Amino acid sequence: MTHPLLIRRDSALNLAACGLPVLPLSADKRPFGNCPDCRDNRCGGRPNMKTPGPCLCPRPCHGWAAATTDLNVLSSAPWTAAWRRAGAVAYHPGAAGVTVVDLDDADAIAWARATLPQTRTVATTRGEHWIYQGAMQSANGVRTGVDIKSSMSYARWLGPGTGTLAPLPAAVRALVDKKPSTVRPITVTVPAPAGGGQCPHRSPVFLERGIAMAEQRITDADSAIHSTVYRTFLAVLSAHGRCGCLTDAHVARLFSAAQAKGESPRHCVDAWANARTALGM
Question: Rounded CA gap, 185 and 248, in Å?
C-alpha cells in the first residue's frame, strides 16, 4: 500500500510539472500557518503577496503565496515534512490563469447551470467547482453558497474534472463587481461600566483612532484573513466593548473593511459573535 505522503507529494510534483502552482494543506484542509520567523510579517513578507520574494523561508509559509512549481522546493526536506502532515494538495488558481467558482450546495449548482456557460467541472464533497480560463479578484459569499477563488486564494486539487475550459464570462466577474458594499447591521449590546463609572474614553478621538487602526490592520492583512479579522474584532471589543461607546456605525466600518478583503457578511457576524463570547459579553 502506497503511503499517503507519497501519494500527496507525487501528485503535487506531477501537477507542478504541468505548470500548476501547488502547496500542501494541513489536516483541516487549510494552508500551514507561518513559521515563527515569518509570523506577523516579521520576515518582510512578500510585496502585495504577488511574488515569491523577498522571504526565502524554505518552509511552505505565507498561505496561498507559498504555491510553487519548483520541483526542488516541493521535494525539499521542509516541504517533505509538511507533506507528511498534509491532508490534501491545493493550488493557486490565479497564478495558473484560471478562476474557480466554488458552488457549495445543490441550490448553488442549479443557479450556475441556469446562469453560467458550461465549463470544466470538478465534484467536491458538498457541491462542484466550475473552472474558467482567466484570472480575477477572489471573493467569498458573492451569493448564497458561491465563492470565487482566483488571485490571492487557493483551491483544493480534487482531480482534473470533466469538460472543456471556457473563457471566464462577464457574469462571473460581475459577481464581484456588483458585490454589495453595505454590511449587515448588528446591534452592539455591552454591559454598562461597573458601578456606573465614567467611560474611560474621555475624548472621542481615542475611540476614532482605535477604529481607524483596526480598519487599517484588516486592510493591510496579506494572509490569514479570517484569523486577522477575528483578532481585530477581539481587540476592539476588549478595548471599547464594555463602556457602551461602540455604535452600529463603528461596527459597520469594521465589517466593510473585512468584506473588502473577501469576508462574507456571515463570516463577519460569526467572528464578531465569537469575539464577544470569548470576552464573556
Answer: 7
Q: Work out whether strand 128-133 and strand 166-167 pair parallel, antiparallel, or are unpaired.
A: parallel
In sequence order, the β-bridge partners of residue 101 are 130, 148
Q: Which residues pair with 24 in a beta bridge?
A: 89
Question: To which H or E segment does residue 180 belong?
Answer: none
The model's pLDDT over 50-91, given as tens digits with 9 standing for 90+, comes to: 444 457 788 888 888 889 999 999 999 999 999 998 999 999
Pick from 97, 96, 165: nearest CA to 129: 165
d(CA 68, CA 23): 7
> Considering only CA atoms, which of 84, 144, 93, 83 is closest in space to residue 122?
93
CB 93 within 8 A of CB 135: yes
pTM of the model: 0.63
Terminal CA-to-CA distance of the chain, rounded, Å?
A: 52
For the stretch 7-31, what's the b/e string if a residue is b when 16 or more beta carbons lie within 10 angstroms of its beta carbon?
Answer: ebbebbbebbeeebbbbbbeeeeeb
Helix residue spans in 136-203 (DSSP H): 170-177
The per-residue pLDDT for range 4-58, each reduced to its tens digit, is 566 688 899 999 999 999 999 988 888 888 888 887 667 766 544 444 445 778 8
The single-letter DSSP state of residue 182 is: S
Give me the amino acid identity at 169.
P
Q: Fill in the amino acid letter for 186.
A: I
Q: Can the peptide bond before residue 265 be classed as cis, meaning omega within 30 degrees of 0?
A: no
3-state secondary structure of 19: coil
Strands (E) in 47-196, as ranges, are: 88-91, 98-103, 120-123, 128-133, 139-143, 146-149, 155-156, 166-167
